[in-house]
Amino acid sequence: MATVSLIALTPQVAQAQTSADLQRQIDALKAQVEALTAALAAGKGASSAPVAASGTPAPSVALAAASAPPPAPVPAATTAPKGKAWYEKLSLRGYTQMRYNAFLSGDDTAPAGQSRLRSVHDSSISDRGSFSLRRARLVVQGDISDRVSLYLQSDFATAVNNQAGSERREGFAQLRDAYADVFLDKAKSLRLRFGQSKVNYGWENMQSSSNRLTLDRSDAINSAAPSERDLGIVAYYTPPSVQKIWDRLGHDGQKLFGNYGAFGLGAFNGQGTNRTEQNRGLMKVAFATWPFALDGLGDAFEGQVLEVGGSAMLNKVQPELRSGAVSAIAYDDNRAGLHAILYPQPFGIQAEWNWGKGPEYDRDSLSIQTRKLQGGYVQMMYRLPTGSAGALMPYGRWQHYHGGWKAGTNAPRLETDEFELGLEWQPWKALEVTLAYARMKRAEADERRTGRAEGDLIRTQVQWNY
Fold first, then answer.
1. What is the pTM of this model?
2. Are 40 and 138 in a shared domain?
3. What is the mean pLDDT of the chain?
4. Residue partners of 108: CB distance under 8 A and separation at least 6
5. pLDDT digits over 47-85, tens only?
6. Is residue 71 in a domain?
7. Could you tell me which residues come within 8 angstroms of residue 81 by beta carbon, excluding any fewer than 6 positions away?
8. What is any Pfam family matched here (predicted)?
């Protein structure tokens, strides 16, 4: 067929020549086709055309190469590869905590008007407490642009009362965090946070419950911002030198408080988590912390880091009343605190204390008054070498607090002295088990009950991370 086509393309030449001449031309064309085919095959496996023994290209190949058209140029890419859409950059994670508390002895029950042993942090500490879900968190976060990121967190283990208020209903979803970070520089060391987020007061208050060593936060520090969150704006700044130390600690597996900046300045509504604001005033909060690497002090301090800082708060808050209404009076809620952490390498110590004044129920006048408050905690811990059994960290903590609990009905007074001795075991990254003994002496957060209750408890928690 190829021969017939070639003849058809050259009809005048075929008529002017003899059959012998025509046959010779056909043979020459066939040789050229074979040479061109060989040249193309050789081009795929070698960079140069085949050469004769004399070093010159073979005639047939040279002829084919000369007659072959040059390869067409490949057009350059005119557009960059398309990046991921913002929703493709989001990640999903979370954790769940299941607890069991058992009374060894103490005031799990009491007559009307007297305090029972209860905790504002764990409702399952009671005469009817058994298994409970303390937290069931789900987090969606990610960068929606080079300068903006989002963070959404819900808790599916929140409890509410029924309409009569006499029975709790468990397992309701509640909004915890809903904020966006706007980074003001390319290094992302300076950012503004808009939305509902952690109130930047107290080192332990800002530390995630998934990362905290003890089962609960201390009453004294948490009294500044129960549930830890509010709606507002915060500016955070982290110098690169500080971030470098925190990155090293995080890589080592230390329990950090989360990167809330070495310096933070915030303005919030001031009424509390998921509560409607009741006045035009804003809660002003300032926070500063600074880690110091102690390696230069000698071999005994190699790898050690000491972090110190403080917090301050100015606010006016209107507590909920026993009648169900909200107080028409805005009470001063001002305080200041200090913190210090020697990260366990392998021994560590952590302490916080704060002083101030806030709303507190006064039994003499049967009304809420502005009263002084003070308290904090001291905690020691030890990191055992990680082996085939996983990571082990024993700890001991003593806490003390005398002052009002503004998140409770009628802002009842708390009087807390507690010692906790525990052990956290993390066999795998996805699982943590905590076993603790607690000696408690507490005033119940109920202004209708007086005195303090005492007791000894065994507390357990299983946490799975995902």
1. 0.81
2. no
3. 88
4. 116, 117, 126, 127, 455
5. 444 444 444 444 444 444 445 555 555 555 556 667 788
6. no
7. none
8. Porin_O_P
> How far is it, in rounded angstroms, from Cα 434 to Cα 420?
12
Q: Given its phi and psi angles, is residue 161 left (phi above 0), alpha (psi -120 to 50 degrees) or beta?
A: beta
pLDDT at position 18 over 70: no
Q: Which contacts of 5-14 are long-range, i.e. CB under 8 A and separated by 24 or more positions? A: none
pLDDT band at 8 (very low <50, low <70, confident <90, very high): very low
Co-location of 151 and 287 in the same domain: yes
Residue 421 within a domain: yes
In a domain, 299, yes or no: yes
One domain, residues 223 and 291:
yes
d(CA 135, CA 382): 26
pLDDT confidence band for 24 (50 / 70 / 90) = confident
Give the CA angle between residues 383, 463, 155 to the nearest 5°: 130
Distance CA 97, CA 400 (A): 25
**Amino acid (one-letter) located at 104:** L
**Same structural domain for residues 320 and 449?**
yes
Residue 85, domain member (yes or no): no
